[in-house]
Design goal:
mainly beta, Porin, 14-stranded antiparallel beta barrel, 4 helices, 21 strands, disordered N terminus, Aromatic hydrocarbon degradation protein
Length: about 400
């Protein structure tokens, strides 16, 4: 009983914290053009490819922006025909960056982003309450970086990634009429990124970038059980006064390869395209080490290992911009994003779908200042859920939209 209780509940929540999906909201201008990356007009290029800083027109560039992300997931049990919808609050991803060129061929910069994170909230009494009732995820990437111009037409850049993360997850434990909360606020990890940025012709920009995996290490995670009777706590190796146990885990965030192109068809019209490759196969297994609870499946009974069957995924992006005047720009885009798992591994904590997204926006340039607005509407493809391991079967659908406001300042 103890192994079933923890393995079907705890593992799913920790995996969610690892980031079962990638949130592509790191630049408002970029989102309007399908979140394409080969745009070296201001410091927003820094997250996508640090090498792009060498081609920013001004010596100093500062950008900041934020998004509202609204989504709803619907699950229907095809046997009972009961349908359940999430009641998710609006997510608010943020970004900020600065780039400075102290000498002709050297640029330095810093980027702050929130590339992983969301909140999903199911009704507390829904049929999947043992998997999740509410899950809040937050991640923060801090990236100092440098770029060197190797020639007038090519640059190389690199960045160091320091990541911080938080999770707060509630689910029901119906076997004992209780609840479980998983919480960790101090997970951290590090990684790196690098890339080349090419401008072989004034009409053509080419961006090639790599962002490494980040192993988020949760060293002080707390699992808190609440049961009607405290007599259950000793059976699970929990603190008899609080119902708590500690755990540690290493939670991988995946690597990303990107190739981006921007071509200026005319002085006013440009077209951009990106290809992203995500290394989700790193989720081959997940290992948790509890302080006391003997709920594992290894020789050491406090260690629990669960196999995962994620697969690498791809994203295809196409965007365009047209300058109506020197001050007003219109933008459109569309992209297709693959889910990293199949129907038989669908999880309610981080629902993922093969998704088409349509984007658009406008930009205004007022001398050194820029204001950009963007929006996106997602069309996730319905899934036939067949997760035998969790006993979760039915049909899942979703819808989502995004909107954002970005500011830029290029003083000199």
């Amino acid at each position: 009983m103890k192994k079933i209780l923890v393995s079907t509940a705890l593992l799913a929540g920790v995996l969610s914290y690892a980031g079962g999906f990638r949130v592509s909201l790191q630049g408002v201008k970029q989102l309007a053009m399908a979140h394409t990356s080969a745009h070296a007009e201001d410091a927003s290029v820094a997250f996508f490819n640090p090498a792009g800083m060498s081609f920013i027109p001004s010596k100093l560039s500062i950008v900041a922006g934020g998004f509202g992300a609204s989504n709803k997931v619907t699950f229907q049990n095809l046997n009972t025909l009961q349908s359940t919808e999430t009641d998710n609050p609006i997510g608010t991803p943020l970004y900020a960056a600065v780039a400075y060129r102290p000498i002709e061929n050297l640029s330095v910069g810093f980027s702050f982003t929130t590339p992983f994170g969301s909140t999903i909230q199911w009704p507390s009494d829904w049929e999947g309450k043992e998997m999740v009732q509410k899950l809040e995820l937050k991640s923060f990437y801090f990236q100092p970086m440098v770029s060197v111009k190797l020639a007038p037409w090519v640059s190389f850049g690199a960045s160091y990634i320091y990541a911080k993360g938080k999770v707060n997850w509630d689910k029901a434990v119906t076997q004992f009429g209780g609840e479980l909360n998983i919480k960790d606020e101090k997970a951290s990890g590090s990684g790196y990124g690098f890339g080349f940025y090419f401008r072989p012709d004034p009409k053509l920009d080419v961006s090639i970038a790599y962002r490494s995996p980040v192993d988020m290490k949760a060293k002080k995670g707390t699992a808190t059980f609440q049961f009607p009777s405290a007599s259950i706590y000793p059976l699970l190796g929990l603190d008899p006064s609080t119902g708590q146990d500690k755990f540690t885990a290493t939670l991988p965030l995946v690597e990303e390869y990107t190739i981006g192109l921007t071509y200026k068809v005319t002085p006013k019209w440009l077209i951009s395209a990106d290809f992203n490759y995500h290394g989700w196969e790193r989720y081959s297994k997940l290992t948790l080490d509890f302080a006391n609870a003997p709920v594992g499946n290894q020789a050491d009974p406090t260690i629990l290992v669960a196999p995962k069957n994620f697969k690498n995924s791809k994203t295809f992006r196409l965007g365009t911009q047209y300058a109506f005047t020197d001050m007003i720009f219109g933008r459109l885009g569309a992209y297709y994003d693959e889910s990293p798992y199949s129907d038989d591994h669908f999880i309610a904590e981080t629902p993922s779908f093969n998704t088409y997204v349509i984007t658009g926006g406008v930009g205004f340039k007022l001398k050194q200042f820029g204001v950009d607005v963007a929006g996106g509407y997602a069309l996730p493809q319905a899934r036939d859920v067949r997760n035998a391991a969790l006993g979760f079967n039915g049909q899942a659908k979703a819808e989502a939209f995004y909107f954002g406001l970005g500011l830029s300042y290029n003083p000199f």
